[in-house]
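Obj.: predict assembly geometry.
Materials: sequence records (below).
Method: joint structure prediction, all chains together.
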Amino acid sequence: MKTLPRRFYRRDPRDVAPDLLNKVLVCGTRSGRIVETEAYCGPIDPGAHSYRGLTPRTTVMFGPPGHLYVYLSYGIHWCCNPVCGEDGEGVAVLIRAVEPVAGIEEMRPRRPKARRDVDLTNGPGKLTEALGIVGANNGADLVTGDQGIVIADDGTPPPVAPIQTWRIGFGNNPARDYPWRWFVPGNRFVSRPEGAR
DNA sequence: ACCGGGATGTTCT
DNA sequence: GAACATCCCGGTG
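Observations (raw structure tokens):
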């Protein structure tokens, strides 16, 4: 298991997102293989939090690559995003689903409402709850692992033919037209194996 | 299986 | 005051 270097993140999020497939997100003693991602592209992306410029919430997203942007979705769920590109760009990748690799017994009590194992981590709000990622982890350095959170390569390459399709959860926002979601074909933990529309 | 609504806090109009 | 990068539960067929 090798922690991904800073340069892995210092690229366009649309290149990083498919490359993150099959990498391992580690949080303390728990980890999961990344099987679904979405790219968020700053000023050219009306779906990105950074679209309208720097705000207190998006400070980390506008910071240097390789740090974790964590935000609260719908007032309830935490979502986690490795920051990409260059310092000041405001681009990142949302991790939408992982497949448990280690510590699954610790994940079950953290996800008491999950009836089946697949419900442990098959969504962006679910995987943060299962792994234990919360708002206090906003800004964590994924390269130094200063908060026990890293992304590592265990030797599994990304899928040869990842599925690329539309992102999830945008109503009538024109962001719905950008096909910036990728997932591992056939993996059971993908939140929505079909296209978004 | 599929669909509608409620929870709940931050951000922006 | 509305929208929101979600999830869960209870209704119906």
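Conclusions so far: The mean pLDDT of chain A is 95.
To do: check interface contacts against the pulldown list.
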